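User: Hey, my collaborator sent me this sequence without any context and asked if I could get a structure. I don't really work with proteins. Can you help?
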Amino acid sequence: MTAIVVMLAWQPMLLQAAVPHGESDLPVWLQDRFEPVHYDLTRIVDNTARKLDQFFGTEDSLFVENQSFLRVALDTLLQPGDSKLDPSVRFRVDMPTTKKRLRLIIESDIEEPLGRLSEQGIREVRGGQRFDTNNSAIGLEQRSSKDPSEAWVQGLGLGVKFGAPLDPYVRYSAARQWNFSESKWQINSLSRVTQFNQRGLQVRTNFDVNRPIDEDRTLRFQTYVDFEERRDSAVFSQTAEINRVIDSRTALRYALIVVGEDRGENTIKDYVLQAYYRRDIHKNILFMDIVPEIHFPTEGNLDPYVALTFRLEAFFRGNFSRLF
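Assistant: No problem. I've predicted the 3D structure and written it out in structure-token form, which is a compact way to encode the shape of the chain:
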């Protein structure tokens, strides 16, 4: 009961914190220190991307729109007996003038596994797990430029995962979107198959079914399934959520998450109640997440417990924008 009270108590606090004022919540002295650093790093990312694109592509790389970005995040996870700081990094270089429109991807979590059952509730929030050189990778990805609402968008990538020994991989991905204008339902499908030389096959599928409730709220159901040959089991999570846009800089999500695996004493491993608050705290480049959760594990005679995640996330790209 105490845990439920803690979860419900967040809503008025979050709504009060979400009152917008201007484009930034940072004090002026902190803006003056952050913006020059952000400008310099953004310029480095942009220059690096355009020079690589020019090397593989054409001189048009100096003028066309480029979708390259650097994302840096720092998570603080608080839960009984386990509190930690987790940095994550993702660097994507877009090369739009190459014949096949290549992308160079450097990331701190190439596998993004669903197998970490204890962290399922905050999977989407984290955008990557702890920075681990043995799970970092560099690779090239080619993806078709078709409209996913009209045709399958297929991609092919290859690269190498760092560690001892190095683990080369090849990856195929496919994405599709279906829109039903009369009912307003939308279905998104994203699947990928990765073959690692050392770790073997990994298959991951995500289905996202959503429908707007009104102007500010959306009902959403997400299904994730992950099979890993080395683990010889499938892990899944099912999420039912309501997403609410509070204003142009603030969003709030309520979710019920069910996590399971096709082995062990119980198929269902954990039930999670989650509130996920996201705030653009500075000009669409610096974001803050606050994520309280209540877990109801089904194995090991564990009692329900409360977990709390704080996250800061910075994007280094001139016109990058997102809430959820």
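In plain terms: The radius of gyration is 21 Å. You can pass these tokens on to your collaborator as they are.
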